[in-house]
TrEMBL record:
Keyword Kinase set for record: yes
ANTAR domain boundaries: 136-197
Record carries keyword Lyase: no
Organism (species): Rhodococcoides kyotonense
PROSITE patterns to which the protein is assigned, alphabetical: ANTAR (PS50921)
Domain of life, source organism: Bacteria
Keywords annotated in UniProt: Kinase, Transcription, Transcription regulation, Transferase
Stated name of the protein: GAF domain-containing protein
Alphabetical list of SUPFAM superfamilies matching this protein: CheY-like, GAF domain-like
One MF annotation (Gene Ontology) recorded for this entry: RNA binding
Length: 210
């Protein structure tokens, strides 16, 4: 698995124009780990989040599939971590959820030395790579978490497809719409997606024909 994750991180740096470094980090049963990284700096910045108990890995990524900070100079969600990142020359970041199950979470975090580095096209690429990493990681975890993680991604994909068809928008716009709903209602993204899928395809009990 580590080789696969290293390859995914390498692809992220290659395919996303302004991504300069990245890491895959986890919190599992209280143990905080950097599973893979492209540089000492990326690993250091993830560890700083653990040390400060502040940053996207420990907050938003538990509830949202994607978290973006366009300008860490003015980032108010995690002021201490943002300041530490800027001191290291990092100006923006994007964090992608790999899985979230209770207190356990996995994240792919990309860092850039430029502001507003992660545009909608970059997010689409990052989501695809995160999905690949998620499957690689969840496959070696217990079966129940593997199934739950894949089911969550499947529900979000169904909801995105419904929005795209109904409102004639692309995948990025559909995902942004889901994220906006999640943030406005303070409800996890997968719960928003599930409610949309349930509303469009309600489950009804079967009636006996005998």
């Amino acid at each position: 698995m580590p080789k696969t994750l290293d390859e995914i991180l390498s692809s992220a740096i290659t395919l996303i124009d302004h991504a300069d470094s990245g890491a895959i980090a986890t919190v599992d049963k209280g143990t905080r780990t950097i599973v893979a990284s492209t540089s000492d700096l990326a690993e250091k910045l993830c560890r700083r989040q653990y040390e400060m108990s502040e940053g996207p890995i420990l907050s938003e990524v538990r509830h949202l599939d994607v978290v973006v900070a366009d300008d860490l100079d003015v980032e108010a969600r995690w002021p201490h971590f943002a300041s530490a990142a800027v001191d290291e020359g990092i100006r923006s970041l994007a964090a992608f959820q790999l899985y979230s199950n209770g207190d356990d979470v996995g994240a792919l975090v990309l860092f850039s030395t430029t502001t507003q580095a992660f545009d909608p096209d970059a997010i689409v690429v990052g989501e695809a790579l995160a999905a690949h990493a998620a499957i690689a990681m969840l496959a070696v975890r217990d079966g129940e978490q593997f199934r739950a993680g894949l089911a969550s991604r499947d529900i979000i994909g169904q909801a995105k497809g419904m929005i795209m068809e109904r409102y004639d928008v692309d995948a990025v716009q559909a995902f942004d719409w889901l994220v906006t709903l999640s943030q406005q209602q303070n409800i996890p993204l997968r719960a928003i997606a599930q409610s949309l899928v349930d509303a469009d395809h309600p489950t009804t009990p079967r009636t006996s024909t005998t």
